[in-house]
Amino acid sequence: MSISKLCADCLRVSHLAQTGQRLGASHARELVAAFFGYKSHAALLAESKFVLSDIEDASVMVPDVPRIQNRLGRLNGLPSNMLSAMDMARALSDYLVSEDWFGGQVWLYESLGNYIVEEYLRENDFYISDELSGEMATTNAYFEAFPCSIRRQSSKTWKMCKSLQAARFRVAKTLTDPIRDMKSDLASR
Question: Distance between CA atoms of 13 and 25, rounded to whole angstroms?
Fold first, then answer.
């Protein structure tokens, strides 16, 4: 039996258990295709380069929650109290992990952008800052009009901007201190 069929069956069972309403097999297959990022179940079946049977080789899985939400809006004849796109993605992700089809990291967020802002940047801040400072140190660029002068849209964005400004200051200081020291040495001679 294919992974997409097993996932569709899992989604139907999960939906019935949580809502008491049956989810049609064709609807479940379309939602599973959306979960994996495909425009349709037919597109999922036609895939020949990245087949689902190779999912166990993947190290990261990013369920396409926005595509599930979009598909929910386009399917006709769905039960009245459908699970949310996030609940469906969570149920399918948990199923794939529990059945040992997938053993890597699951990045389950409303969108990939949310994951990057809320988790990835925070977890990798030191590495990113270190890499950026190395690259910035090799340039003569000056960043006076840094985007933190924009309105404070969220505290996370504001903190990230402040962190980047501090990193920019450290890089600028690292560049200017040795030059200033060399100038004062030459002037004293």
Answer: 11
- What is d(CA 22, CA 25) in angstroms, rounded to the nearest whole number? 9
Q: Which residues of the chain have pLDDT under 50?
A: 148-153, 171-176, 179
> CB neighbours of 157 closer than 8 A, spacing ≥ 6?
117
Tokens for 71?
Answer: 């598909």
- Tokens 């400004």 sit at which residue? 165
pTM of the full predicted structure? 0.64
Does residue 72 contact residue 31 with C-beta atoms inside 8 Å? yes
CA atoms within 13 A on the CB side of 113: 2
pLDDT tens figures, 116-163: 777 777 887 777 777 777 666 666 665 555 554 444 445 555 555 555
Pairing verdict, β 60-61 and 105-106: parallel
Q: Is 61 helix (H, G, I), strand (E, B) or coil?
A: strand
Residues ≥6 apart with Cβ < 8 Å to 54: none
